[in-house]
Automatic annotation (TrEMBL):
Name of one Pfam family that matches: SMP_LBD
Family matches, as PANTHER family: EXTENDED SYNAPTOTAGMIN-LIKE PROTEIN 2, ISOFORM C
Record lineage: Eukaryota, Metazoa, Ecdysozoa, Arthropoda, Hexapoda
Disordered: region residues: 571-679
Name of this protein: Extended synaptotagmin-2
Protein's organism: Coptotermes formosanus
Keywords for this protein: Calcium, Lipid transport, Lipid-binding, Membrane, Metal-binding, Repeat, Transmembrane, Transmembrane helix, Transport
GO biological process: endoplasmic reticulum-plasma membrane tethering; lipid transport
Biased composition (Acidic residues): 576-598
Length: 816
């Protein structure tokens, strides 16, 4: 921190201390007097001690819960006020995105501009909060019997929004648009006050962090050269705040979740995909170009089942089971499975479909909860874990059938099946889509997607004598319903809003539009459009046509546009990751045959020459599959590490022995296996692992494939092995992971995947401890650990998947 900024900070702190010292002393005295008075009254009236102990326990829990949150807020606020160098030195875990991603650029010049225009942003945000967010929050709170919500003061403070980095896409992008992602972070000193149910309260230390996408389109030849902007978050941003004033009494775990959930919902409804915030910059561009939905496809999610969930309920003999349900989230779209009582292995067989506007950067998030009875609106359920799936991977493969490991808990896996459905403008694909849904025998599945743009209405009748109506439009297709904004006091409302509807069967479904007066809730007019009428239209669409409103005035009309798209499964898409792989392809010719791959790898030293058949017979034969891209990457880097796990069309090197990674020989615990002994150097067997680090998701991914040649000392006591993982050096319970137990097996095969959330800075200082444990021998003096090894993560290049065999060693001491 510079000398001037340091002096300024110290002066601010001194002013705050001086201004609040008297008040803090008075407040402290009042608390002491109140405490003594309460104790005196309890004794005077001979009340039970429970009246004193209960509030004290709740107060202690509340204070401890708020300490951690307050620390995080203060650190984030300090980071927002410091420069780049100080942020990097102070918080290695929270580095800006340009540190990790080479294609993300620093934009300190933009942060300086934001600092200059921040007072003007304050005025714009005040109008936005008052006109858009306040009515929606009020309506949502009324569902919890909390009436009269109203903002009183809205000041964003002096600390501006900060942009951690910007990535501009220059590949696979239309020439008529510019797409860029911005890492948005706000941790300011806002001052927002409100009233709710006669109680005055406020919000301080409001924070929001997320990846925001800005699409500039279309590009035009006149100034300002860009017709408009579309601003939106790819996934739900992280939002946190602190309640002050009388509302601080509600700031306890569970109760404050109501307000926090409502604010998150309002932000998602406004600008989290598939919702976008359009900004029109030129009058020559029709509003439909910016405000009409533009989905890229539909993601069909099948939540099949889960296994080995945590036992959260208390039974008669200790821990009972759980009542699990799952919540699936994609952007602003959320779905919930039904609850299955008294099980840790639920079978939901739940289907849902989500509209995807941009598969690049979006994730499907799945959370599992144990249902517990509680008060309405209060989160009383127990957390059972979370998992995410990248949408891009589903688009690339067409279909994904995977068991995902739940994060944040000791155990639990969920079985997911995901299918990517593209949008087709051909009516010939409808028959196949209907046949597919009939084959699935799921009535909620869709065959089409209807895009609707409601432009305006004209000549509405007078719903109230001598007063103009406040009209809004209500759209529905089947059970789905959407509403436009309310236009105040007008007979000719202009909405200019777009919506998307999933359609079960376009041959029989219809679109219903009602125009309603908000104050009287009276229907002004309605129209029905049968979707099969679009079959005869060019490209299955109708462009901005007026339709007469029935049950309305003789000249009342509504103007809207329709576009129908058929859901079509197209299989894997080879060009999804083209923008990431293009650089790697440069300078390499196509490798077509397995012999060319082997000769190139042997020549470059990436793979040893195949051993003789006699030598190979003494080793476990596991073919290593290598893609063309993987072979090129290995040749370019000159690395002797192994290749990635296969994900595309693969070629198999069945003649070569398993490719192994050889760490430095000084650490024998995770040395590569000797080729002269199939049971490893210590004779305790070997284990095959795949390790990879995802920079984008900040996760270490560990795949436990198999264990071979475990020693069998007693033929009558065959081991029941499972693999246990810990992150060192602390060996905390949160880092514990374990596979299923294989009964009576010396060569178990697991193929289970585990994730650890780690920053790239932490990765270099961590070790992964892998132990093979048997469940037998409870009354034996011998340790249940059959073998163990430790991987120094900092010694491996985990930017690409590393698949290796490791020798199991005797159990090491607990202090590593």
């Amino acid at each position: 921190m510079t000398g001037a900024s340091k002096e300024k900070t110290e002066s601010i702190v001194q002013k705050r201390i001086g201004g609040t010292s008297i008040l803090s002393v008075l407040y402290s005295c009042a608390k002491k007097i109140g405490t003594v008075a309460i104790v005196y009254l309890i004794g005077y009236f001979e009340l039970s001690a429970a009246w004193l102990i209960g509030p004290v326990i709740l107060s202690v829990i509340r204070d401890e819960w708020k300490k951690d949150k307050e620390l995080r807020r203060n650190v984030a606020k300090a980071a927002a006020m410091c420069n780049e160098k100080e942020v990097i030195l102070a918080r290695v875990d929270d580095l800006p995105s340009w540190v990790f991603f080479p294609d993300v650029e620093r934009v300190e010049w933009l942060n300086r501009i934001l600092r200059q225009v921040w007072p003007n942003v304050n005025h714009y945000a005040k109008t936005l909060i008052k006109e858009t967010i306040e009515p929606n929050v009020r309506a949502s709170l009324e569902a919890y019997k909390l009436n009269g919500f109203c903002f009183q003061r809205m000041i964003l403070g002096s600390i501006p929004l900060r942009i951690g980095g910007v990535k501009v896409y220059d590949r696979n992008v239309s020439r008529n648009e510019i797409i860029m992602d911005m890492d948005i972070f706000y941790a300011g000193d806002c001052d927002i006050s409100f009233t709710i149910g006669g109680i005055k309260g406020g919000i301080k230390d409001f924070q929001i962090h997320g990846m925001m996408r800005v699409v500039m389109k279309p590009l035009i030849t006149s100034m300002p050269l860009v017709g408009g902007l579309q601003v939106f978050f790819l996934n739900n941003p992280t939002i946190d705040f602190n309640l002050v004033g009388m509302a601080d009494l509600l700031d306890m775990p569970g109760l404050s979740d109501i307000l926090r959930r409502i604010i998150v919902e309002q932000v998602a409804r406004m600008m989290v995909l598939p919702n976008k915030l359009p900004i029109q910059l030129s009058d020559v561009i029709p509003a439909k170009v910016l405000k009409m939905p533009e989905p890229e496809g539909v993601l069909r999610v099948h939540v099949v089942e889960a296994k080995q969930l945590m036992k959260m309920d208390i039974g008669v003999l200790g821990k009972g089971k759980s009542d699990p349900y799952a919540i699936i989230t994609l952007g602003a779209q959320q779905f919930r499975t039904h609850t299955i009582d008294n099980t840790v292995n639920p079978k939901w067989d739940f289907w849902c479909e989500a509209v995807v506007s941009s598969y690049k950067g979006q994730e499907v998030a799945l959370e599992v909860w144990d249902w517990d009875a509680g008060f309405p609106g209060v989160q009383n359920d127990d957390y059972l874990g979370r998992a995410t799936v990248d949408v891009r991977g589903v688009v690339k493969n067409g279909q994904v059938d995977v068991w995902v490991t739940l994060e944040g808990v000791k155990s639990g896996m969920v079985h997911l099946r995901l299918t990517w459905l593209a949008l087709s403008g051909s009516l010939a694909d409808l028959k196949a889509a209907i046949a597919e849904t009939q084959l699935l025998r799921v009535t909620s599945m869709s065959t089409g997607l209807l895009l609707v743009f409601v432009d305006s209405a004209k000549n509405l009748p007078n719903a109230r004598p001598s007063k103009k109506p406040d009209p809004y439009a209500q759209l529905s297709v089947g059970k789905q319903q959407e509403v436009t904004n309310v236009e105040m006091r007008t007979f000719d409302p202009v909405w200019e809003q777009g919506f998307s509807f999933l359609v079960n069967n376009p041959e029989s479904d219809s679109l219903f539009i009602k125009v309603i007066d908000q104050k009287t809730t009276r229907e002004i007019g309605c129209v029905e459009y049968k979707l099969h009428l679009l079959f005869d239209k060019p490209d299955l669409q109708v462009d901005s046509e007026p339709y007469r409103l029935t049950r309305s005035g003789p000249d009342s009309k509504i103007d809207f546009s329709l576009q129908l798209r058929i859901l079509k499964y197209e299989g894997p898409k080879e060009d999804v990751n083209e923008d990431e792989d293009e650089d790697a392809e440069e300078g390499f010719n196509e490798i077509e045959t397995q012999e060319e791959v082997e000769s190139l790898l042997v020549r470059e030293g990436s793979v040893k020459k195949p051993d003789s058949p006699e030598k190979q017979a003494s080793e476990p034969s596991t073919p290593v599959k290598i893609t063309k891209q993987e072979s090129r990457d290995s040749i370019r880097s000159g690395s002797s590490s192994s290749f990635q796990q296969p994900t595309e069309d693969l070629m198999t090197l069945s003649k070569a022995p398993p490719v192994v990674h050889t760490p430095p020989s000084g650490d024998i615990r995770h040395r590569a296996p000797s080729v002269s002994s199939s049971a490893g150097e210590a004779g305790l067997g070997r284990i095959q692992l795949t390790l990879r680090y995802s920079v984008q998701r900040q996760r270490l991914i560990v795949v436990v494939h198999k264990v071979v040649n475990l020693p069998l000392k007693d033929p009558t006591n065959i081991p029941d092995p499972y693999v246990k993982l810990y992150l060192l050096p602390e060996r905390a319970k949160d880092s514990k992971r374990k596979t299923e137990t294989m009964k009576d097996n010396c060569n178990p095969v697991y193929d289970e995947t585990f994730d650890y959330i780690l920053s790239q800075g932490e990765l270099n200082s961590r070790q992964l401890e892998v132990s093979v444990v048997t469940r037998k021998g409870w009354f034996s003096s011998q340790s249940p650990i059959m073998g163990q090894m430790v991987v120094n993560l900092g010694e491996l290049d985990l930017s690409k998947a590393v698949t290796s065999w490791f020798d199991l060693q005797p159990e090491s001491t607990k202090d590593v």
